[in-house]
Amino acid sequence: MDLFANVALGFERALSLDALLFCFLGVAIGTFVGVLPGVGAMAAVALCLPITFYLDPTVALIMLAGIFYGAQYGSSTASILLNIPGTVTSAVTCLDGYPMAQQGKAGVALFMVTMTSFIGGSIAILLMMLFTPTIAAFALRFSSAEYFMIMAMGLIAAVTISQGSTLKSLMMVVVGLALGTVGTDTGSGAMRFTFGILQLSDGISLVAIAMGLFGVAEIISSIGRDVSKSVVAKDISFRSMLPSKAEIKASVMPTLRGTGIGAAIGALPGAGATVATFMAYALEKKVAKDPSRFGKGAIEGIVAPESANNAAVQAAFIPTLSLGIPGDALMAFLLGAMMIHGIVPGPRFLVDQPVMFWGLVASFWIGNVFLLILNIPLIGLWVRILAIPYRFLYPAMLFFICIGVFAINYQVFDVFAVMVFGFIGFVMTKFGYPPAPILLGFVLGPMMEEHFGRALLMSRGSFDIFWQRPISAVLLAISLLLIAYSMKGIFLRVRSGAHAPEEASREL
Amino acid sequence: MTEQSQSRPVLNRWELGAAAIFFLLGLYMAIEGSHYGLGSITRIGPGFFPVSIGVLLMLLSVGVAFEVRHSLAAAPKIPMRITLVIAVALLSFALLVNTAGLIPAIFAVVFIARFAEPGNNVVASAILAAGLALVGWLAFIVGFNLPLKPFWW
Amino acid sequence: MKKLIALSVVAALTAGAASATYAQEYPTRPITLVNPYAAGGSADLIARTIGEYMSRILGQPVVVENRTGAATAIAATSVIAQPADGYTLLLAGSPTHVITPALNPDAGYDGIADFDFVSLVASVPNVLVVSKNSGITTIDQLAERALEAPDTVSYASVGNGSLPHLTGLMFSEEIGAQMLHIPYPGVAPATVDILAGNVDTGFLNAPALIAHIQSGDLVPLAVAATTRASQLPDVQTMGELGYNDYEMGTWYGVSAPAGTPPEVIAKLDAAIGEVMANPEVQERLQQSGVDLFYKNTADFEAFVAADAKTVLGLIESSGVKNAQ
Questions:
Q1: What's the first-to-final CA gap in chain B, in angstroms?
Q2: Complete domains list, chain C, with CATH
Q3: Does the predicted interface ipTM exceed a cut of 0.85?
Q4: Confidence of residue B4 (pLDDT cuts 50, 70, 90)
Q5: Whose CA is closest to C109, among C212, C293, C255, C210?
Q6: How far B153 CA lies from chain A's nearest CA (Å)?
Q7: Read out DSSP for B41-72?
Q8: Tens digits of residue pLDDT in A142-191
Q9: Lowest CB count within 10 Å: A1, A365, C272, C311, which one?
């Protein structure tokens, strides 16, 4: 009963005029920056922070959080329409979203990701209302050994994501790991592969890699291939956006599974939404009756990662608010914003600031409703983008990629990096090396190294730590099973030594 | 065995070459990484991961080479003109954005990028660049307050 | 020849006069205060608070610009690259001026010679904490346990060569017991592992710990500073507890590129001094666990020189640098 009183308290705060106004403003800005390729939520939140100094702390947080989860809604738009992820978390959505758009089902795809984003976000918010203290306590039981195992599992799952050669995917994961070693080593502080370039001491920019491998590579391969479609009026009618019964039915379970994975990964500080999207996609491919449909416009391939993404983003607030422990840079930033307002999130936050906590949680749900209302009518507008001739579209996309990459650290160097990775990404896809696993390897590599090193430090060099802790042991077992499962396919392909030409030189 | 003697598959040089590049990358990582210090099992050094990755990369590239040795994929065509033009467009943005300002950088990107496809209309490019300049100025300088000047003065 | 001398005298005189009027008129346009840390967090709070109040005194906006990267080297080098005219300032700290130039060979600048120091502003104390489940309640018990079983008691830091690492080194050197150093990428994950009992202890930044200390999950043993932390008035300093006085808080100040006109520096220092005397500012900073620590230009220079000596000595003797 206490819960209902609290929820009522929260909605009372979140439904006040100022809260509603800034919530809407936040999610609208979020959608906008999410749609732009390269310009992410981080830049927008950082740049909006000074505005919020003049607001009531609860309202300020409602707005900043709105930008954050709003960006996740917008980010899939560019993935589906242009094969360029709006943010890194929607890179996986490209794999099946873009083929859907090419089959004339862009409206359906956008509608479905909006709906599943809403469902994923809503379920995660519900979990947050019911179980925040329990989840937070559970997250504390994860030490470096568990983190390492869950990341290893994520990498192994990622290998199965791409079509074609498993070995090539595996190699791309390792290339991602290799790129992740550039910069300062967390353990020792040593500089690795920096070639004396100061800008490299923090490593290569993740956004530069993502925008290069996906964005610029896609632009190079699309120019001259005239991908623009003549969009006829019926393609943008409301009816054309509505999915068929079969499509809805096929989406229910993937959405729920995606939400589950997203909520679980999101609640762990540090694992991150990107990993959740990759794992959700890999799981769908594993459980599908016909995995070969993936990569060719399977609806499960967009709804699972998108629901995972939004669930993860909402769940990431759990450790931040209840433990005062931010999972990623963005959460650290929101935590900082709270501290600027004189509020210290931590174990006592729920008790000491019930209006703020419950008001924020209630606003998440209101914000998700706003996003639904905002995004459904926008679909018609986005689909029209497809009607613009590509020769007008690509210079604009190049500009947005440039400014987006630049805006993260104000570093011109990152724009050079985009150029290099654009070229590499283009050549690689021509040779049948998929770019998506590189991204995951790059995100996870430094964290895996850090946790591996720390786990061994804690166990004084004994590998027992990985199987003597129960959670870690379970994760290890799952990983080994996944490896065993993949081995058969690899062996068969290596022995034959030949494969179809269209597979090797397929487009991104 | 009998199948092979019927039509002897030829080795695919392109695919093997690509695998060789990854092998060399792995080799470089392993050698360079070993200079960073491997550390001990209790406290792994900064070189431990790079060396492991390098070795793994070499092993995988050998595996891939075996897998693709008879691949039927043809040599991929790389459109030199498009690649070069896009690279120069990005380069011009990088060089101009801090020196000449955001708006000249936008014009440079748009006007250089148009050479990627033959027969682009100059007027259309000018309109596009002007539109992007307005959006860029409003959104990123006025709105988001990025530390950028619209022009060099 | 005479003509040349006369000319140069005239030039020097006009330059002097120009600089005098320059300083009088300064500032005529917005001032940029570059913060080497990400928005949010203690550094940002300090930068934005003093920026806001400085602009009221100086009559020009003070714009905070976050330029993160390369352990503060990106911000430091970007400030040096600007003209020394007082319009670009740096939020200074041990990392910008002492630690990073010493540890990162790519940094490529001299943290002391390339800068003029304006004033010291604030300090965030590092607090020695243990989990409530550890059974340890005093620093002596911790020292005893570390002596009983060398190399098993572990302490968290925020990276090799970071202040928490160096403070931990000083402590283990003082008690004469080897302790196991476990580096983390930031104070948040380090706090989690202390809470969960995966690491035993650590000298960590107070603002991240206060909520957990108040809830009783973390037990504060000592403050590694010469004075107590304003947010934790009951926690004794290392000196009070009979250990060496560690002045190992994270300090923040304002610096400018070397060659900034002294009149401009004086004007800035006066403004900052006035800001720091404002009770509103004091309350705003202390509320978030930041302690006031104002020193004027001359004292700040001496302070940095002393800090550099201690920190560089530790880096040298501990082999932190060689470990790379």
A1: 75
A2: 30-124+250-318 (3.40.190.150), 126-223 (3.40.190.10)
A3: yes
A4: very low
A5: C255
A6: 19
A7: SSSB-TTHHHHHHHHHHHHHHHHHHHHHTT--
A8: 888 888 888 888 788 767 666 667 788 889 989 999 999 998 887 777 78
A9: A1
